[in-house]
Amino acid sequence: MLTQTSFQGKLNKTEDLFIPFIEAGDPTPEVTIDLALKLQEAGADILELGIPYSDPLADGPTIQRAAKRALDNGMSLQQAIELIPDMRANGLEIPVVVFTYYNPVLRIGEEKFFKLLEEHGAEGVLIPDLPHEESESVRELALKHDIEYISLVAPNSEERIQKIASEARGFLYCVSTLGVTGGENQLSSEVTDFIQKVKEHSPVPVAVGFGISTNEDVQMIRQHADGVIIGSKIIRLVEAEVENLKDDSKRHEALNRFYENVRELVE
Amino acid sequence: MEQVYPDQQGRYGDFGGKYVPETLMAPLQELEEALDEAMADREFIAEYHGVLEKYAGRPTALTYADKVTEILGGAKIYLKREDLLHTGAHKLNNAIGQALLAKRMGKQKIIAETGAGQHGVASATVAAKFGLECKVFMGEEDIRRQEPNVFRMKMLGAEVIPVSSGRGTLKDATNEAIRYWVANCEDTFYLIGSVVGPHPYPRMVRDFQRIIGDESKRQFLEGEPTLPDYIYACVGGGSNAIGMFHPFLEDDVELVGVEAAGKGVDTEEHAATLTKGDRGVIHGSLTFLLQDEHGQITEPYSISAGLDYPGIGPEHAYLFDSKQVRYEAVTDEEAMDALKLLTETEGIIPAVESAHALAQAFKEAKDMSADKTILINLSGRGDKDLATIMNHFKGEE
């Protein structure tokens, strides 16, 4: 049994975490590497690397579009994982959490999946359509391969919160609102009560995601949680530059604008 | 021995389960508790049967198809006439059950997904009848293929929400309905139309459709000394087939599920999930599905919008895996030929979906001896398919 997981070894702090999400292969594999590095430069503490999927049930239109762009370029689960060593070679030091739906994992095989993650230097995995009850074998494999299995809790998890939170690894993903990613968010006082309740039971940092799109949202979440997860908003920033990012002569400028926009969002 | 599955986790052997975002775990739990309570309540069951009888027109007839039997010259062919049910297909059995449950749970809003539009029409119908607000998610391609049903839904007061993602068919409509439900689960009941989705949906839909098999069993023995030797039903998600098969699972009857082979199972264009698919998760359930080497769900194809689905109910996956039911696949062409034969000999225009079951049954009946009996579930009528049928036979006149 390890005293410290690779995830913990790479994580520099346990509060005020900024956890951005990007989709592997959106718009190209090379740009995904550049974006990961820019996000680290902009203060990211953990990178969520999304695997594009044909039927992303938990995602709204923004991430669906990102998935489509990536799939149209032929991105797959294995190829996405293989990007991680390239990110590392270019200076990425923060932990990488692979975000994937369950079917591609089943297809490649659970054992092989975790072996790939370990071999390619991923530190965590998040499977949004694998609730606690269905995830036992996957959690065991994750432990064996030194990969943190990131769990989610939702505002309506109620009595499940204690069970899920107390067994949480890496960080605990708090879904701020009922709905899919990228929706309108009203961060009500109910959310802060919910976060408080989750924090009472969680041995790991508690981060909040879903619908966080403005600097005000970020400031508000910071007051209550240990971290903020930003997905759709980051994807929209990528989307705004998508043609420039694909163009060798314009990529550098586009990445700098992306960096500035991310800074504005989280500073 | 009946009802040994699903187990507590909603498993049919390896299949089924609840592969959903955490946000849906609470509403699924709420649904399961309400369902178990309702199914154990005699008044609820009586109300359900009352509506089926007085409103929907049950029992539906069992018809001896003497002409087609004579032409094929083999086994005696019987048809279970779900095409005679109000709204024209078996879908209403389930929609009534779930709408009554929604009301009992105090949910005033229902949502549904639809492919051919039959489940959408059934949902819009029960919404009108029971005073519920109804939204139906439907792929844009299906809206084009099934225009009359879109009009019927709107007349019945439902809002039809076009879904443009993917190829705009049932899979995509189901994704969108699930996404909507995640955000609105507090006041909205998701009325799933087939034996698919996370537990307890496959069990619930089966239990609201098994009336087809229960009735058939009784009716068949009124005319014949023994149960049928064979029973055929078409399978997309698989609700009419499970409804028909389930009461016969312990009997000495050969059950045959018929999938859509589209342009052929050796082409890219088919919806033959069990014949050509692999294990995987779709719409919250572990089952068989059509997918590529990377686990991306692929787009199915069938001339029939109701069979155009890349997954299949988990109970079918189990019955296939445990070899309790035989599954076959028939092409668009074979189905349309069977549709024509039934229309011309029996004066019944079947739905293109049901024509798949007919095609397989006719193929096998020919080679059977005259003392064999077969039962085909005629799951719906073909009025909704007239444009498809006209288009298919164009130039033959």
Automatic annotation (TrEMBL), chain A:
<dbReference type="InterPro" id="IPR011060">
    <property type="entry name" value="RibuloseP-bd_barrel"/>
</dbReference>
<dbReference type="InterPro" id="IPR013785">
    <property type="entry name" value="Aldolase_TIM"/>
</dbReference>
<comment type="similarity">
    <text>Belongs to the TrpA family.</text>
</comment>
<comment type="function">
    <text>The alpha subunit is responsible for the aldol cleavage of indoleglycerol phosphate to indole and glyceraldehyde 3-phosphate.</text>
</comment>
<keyword id="KW-0175">Coiled coil</keyword>
<keyword id="KW-0822">Tryptophan biosynthesis</keyword>
<feature type="active site" description="Proton acceptor">
    <location>
        <position position="59"/>
    </location>
</feature>
<comment type="pathway">
    <text>Amino-acid biosynthesis; L-tryptophan biosynthesis; L-tryptophan from chorismate: step 5/5.</text>
</comment>
<feature type="coiled-coil region">
    <location>
        <begin position="235"/>
        <end position="262"/>
    </location>
</feature>
<dbReference type="InterPro" id="IPR000489">
    <property type="entry name" value="Pterin-binding_dom"/>
</dbReference>
<protein>
    <recommendedName>
        <fullName>Tryptophan synthase alpha chain</fullName>
        <ecNumber>4.2.1.20</ecNumber>
    </recommendedName>
</protein>
<dbReference type="InterPro" id="IPR018204">
    <property type="entry name" value="Trp_synthase_alpha_AS"/>
</dbReference>
<dbReference type="InterPro" id="IPR002028">
    <property type="entry name" value="Trp_synthase_suA"/>
</dbReference>
<dbReference type="Pfam" id="PF00290">
    <property type="entry name" value="Trp_syntA"/>
</dbReference>
<comment type="subunit">
    <text>Tetramer of two alpha and two beta chains.</text>
</comment>
<keyword id="KW-0028">Amino-acid biosynthesis</keyword>
<feature type="active site" description="Proton acceptor">
    <location>
        <position position="48"/>
    </location>
</feature>
<keyword id="KW-0057">Aromatic amino acid biosynthesis</keyword>
<keyword id="KW-0456">Lyase</keyword>
<feature type="domain" description="Pterin-binding">
    <location>
        <begin position="5"/>
        <end position="267"/>
    </location>
</feature>
TrEMBL record, chain B:
<dbReference type="InterPro" id="IPR001926">
    <property type="entry name" value="TrpB-like_PALP"/>
</dbReference>
<dbReference type="InterPro" id="IPR006654">
    <property type="entry name" value="Trp_synth_beta"/>
</dbReference>
<protein>
    <recommendedName>
        <fullName>Tryptophan synthase beta chain</fullName>
        <ecNumber>4.2.1.20</ecNumber>
    </recommendedName>
</protein>
<keyword id="KW-0028">Amino-acid biosynthesis</keyword>
<dbReference type="InterPro" id="IPR036052">
    <property type="entry name" value="TrpB-like_PALP_sf"/>
</dbReference>
<dbReference type="Pfam" id="PF00291">
    <property type="entry name" value="PALP"/>
</dbReference>
<comment type="subunit">
    <text>Tetramer of two alpha and two beta chains.</text>
</comment>
<feature type="modified residue" description="N6-(pyridoxal phosphate)lysine">
    <location>
        <position position="91"/>
    </location>
</feature>
<keyword id="KW-0663">Pyridoxal phosphate</keyword>
<comment type="function">
    <text>The beta subunit is responsible for the synthesis of L-tryptophan from indole and L-serine.</text>
</comment>
<keyword id="KW-0456">Lyase</keyword>
<feature type="domain" description="Tryptophan synthase beta chain-like PALP">
    <location>
        <begin position="56"/>
        <end position="380"/>
    </location>
</feature>
<keyword id="KW-0057">Aromatic amino acid biosynthesis</keyword>
<comment type="pathway">
    <text>Amino-acid biosynthesis; L-tryptophan biosynthesis; L-tryptophan from chorismate: step 5/5.</text>
</comment>
<dbReference type="InterPro" id="IPR006653">
    <property type="entry name" value="Trp_synth_b_CS"/>
</dbReference>
<comment type="similarity">
    <text>Belongs to the TrpB family.</text>
</comment>
<keyword id="KW-0822">Tryptophan biosynthesis</keyword>
<dbReference type="InterPro" id="IPR023026">
    <property type="entry name" value="Trp_synth_beta/beta-like"/>
</dbReference>
